[in-house]
Amino acid sequence: MEETAKQDLVFLELRQKLQSGLLFIRGDIGDGADVKIESKRASTLNIQTADGTYQVNLTPGVNLVETACQKSPGSTDHESHFRLRLRVEQQSEAPCSVIGRLQANVTYSFLCQSCGSVVLQDRAFGRVLPLPNGNWNALVDDWCCHPDPFANRKLLPRDGDCLLGDTFILLARDSSCEQTLTREGNTPQKAPAEQKRVSKRVMLSCRSCSAVLGEELTAEVLKFYITEILVKPCEDGGCDISQLSLESKSDSKRQRFLEQTIASRLVELSSAQSIFRFSIQTPDGKAVILLWLLNTDTLVASFPAAAARDDSFISAGDVHPIEHQSCQAVQAVKVLYVLCSDSKLKDRLK
Fold this sequence. Notes:
Layout: H1 2-7, E1 8-15, E2 20-26, E3 36-38, E4 44-49, E5 52-57, E6 62-64, E7 70-71, E8 79-88, H2 98-101, E9 107-112, E10 118-124, E11 127-130, H3 140-143, E12 161-164, E13 168-172, H4 177-180, E14 181-186, H5 192-195, E15 201-206, E16 212-216, E17 221-225, E18 229-233, H6 251-273, E19 277-281, E20 287-304, E21 326-328, E22 330-339, H7 343-349
């Protein structure tokens, strides 16, 4: 967060559980003596500097304790740090991912996230069931007194079922898939000795924009990645497709969608399984990034410099020019991550 703070004129990070926060103000818009922090209305924060006034709209139930704003010893000539104390009457709830929103007997339309084209329309499920997590079949011997009844068998949905994995959805194919999806074979890169044992994977792509949406597990079962699709409920038995954009999303919107989707799943999995360590893997199971979930109760807000850069670290809210001196605090998760390609990490794992 420190790197982000240095890029912004004003950067705010609040912890709801700790009822405290940090405010970073860049030195070129005012030193600590010129800063006044107050809350004129409920769930708002006004920051007055020599450069102007910045207003942050907090989530309902989160308010500033005005008498507890102290300048931090970490302040320098380049930036001022202020410690804030909060009164949290109602902690913000983390938004659900598509995995957490899907319900039985509700009609949905599935769309390509990249271009907005409908790939499955008006699908309702009699059963929405979670799949076992992790290497569940490795534990079968611990609770079965007879040979593994699930050996060499996959858990696949029947017609009318929707099965939920950690990062994917399994559905039965229907006749509309031929008009909206294309199939393309893809063989994972393996050593020659392993190549014979690896089956060819059939990828599913959007017919409109060719974005990869998932895989074909069998001739009747489709696997969609939650990072590549949008799922919209159809109200009153129909989904207004005319209101959906069929243009390719910008890189910033795509990045924001990925951040929100991954963050929501991290929070859901951590809450359900009491785990805080994760790995992001390729489809063939190779770990790419190791993640440690540090906290899930953070609210952040920022006012970028007038010449806002497109590679801003925080993409949870729209970048706004300095004359728009008001913004909404958004929920965020803080993670520690390590790239598995790091040579130092590889040496430690040997």
